[in-house]
User: Fold this.
Amino acid sequence: MAIREGRWDCQYCGKTGILGREQGCPGCGRVRPEGTKFYLLEDAPEVTDEHLQERAQAGADWVCAFCGTTNEAQRDPCKQCGASKSSSESQQQVKTYELHEVPRTGDNAPDETIQPEPSQVVASRSSALPMLPVIGGVLAVLLVCGLGIWFFVLRTTEQQVTVDGFSWERTIEIEEMRTVTEEDWDVPSGGRVLDQRQEIHHYKQVLDHYETRTRQVNERVKVGSEDYVCGQRDLGNGFFEDKMCTRDVYETRSRTETYEEPIYRDEPVYRTRYTYEIDRWERDRTEKAQGNDQNPVWPDYMLASNQRAGERSALYRVHITDDQGKTYQVEAPEQRWAVLHIGDRVIVKFNAMGEPIELIFQRRS
Ligand SMILES: [Zn+2]
Ligand SMILES: [Zn+2]
Assistant:
């Protein structure tokens, strides 16, 4: 397994990135203290030197119980004071990291606190700014359209005018019982069947047969396994060792598959269709009475034995003249129409086209 050389930082003089093989700081000359954090740079190459590989695999560094000096695993006795390794139990910690946990900075690195990115805020603000003229333009167009609709369609004016006449119109619908011939899928009550036959009412889809067809399908197939670097092992002596894991390797393969496609056909559904005769009230004529006074009456009418009087309707109009001498007619409810007099001054509401639409109130002149 591949060995890589780690780094460490000197806590005395602040020097950073010291090679893992160094037992002392090249800056201040002090011995690496116990518990120093080893880290691995992202692009640390594999160690190929046999001597260094041997040192890395010899085990963790040990710390002299008498003078505190860190010694390589193979060194005995202590290079500083000569005490033997067997009298010391303390040694650098060995630990294994997942790939995302591997330390990339040492003891002297500043705390990794996440700062909000101000550039993003500026970017979003500047991207919103070009939209402002567009929104303003849309609002202006909507305002002009609204004013146009109000002026040409919704605008009303009120004007005082003089009553100078009246007219009325009253109508009665006369209906007659007639025998008519119709056809339908059902016979309504009172209908007398003249003829019936089978006709196509609608079509339904019926399974006719299956056709064998082919299609391409993609499948994920396991084709083997591979070893990969899934972490790092801090050997406790300035060196790291790749931690290897195994994972399955898949491949997407395409194959041709046959399947049965259902084929449908339209089949007619027959129902009985009837021709029948039936007696119905139908509109025969409109009887109408009208006059240019305030004495409305309903029209006279004569009924045959198969006839009846149906819906009644009435219309009452006030004839008016404005102060420019222009004449109009405006509809009014019967009760208000009946109590007006010629010469009365009334207020009338006009629409945007200049047509009278409503009699608002009356005032005696
Ligand atoms: Zn130093
Ligand atoms: Zn010592």
Summary: Residues 120-124 have pLDDT under 50 and may be disordered. The two ends are 116 Å apart (CA to CA). The pocket of zinc ion (ligand 1) is lined by residues 10, 12-13, 15, 25, 27-28, 30 (CB under 6 Å).
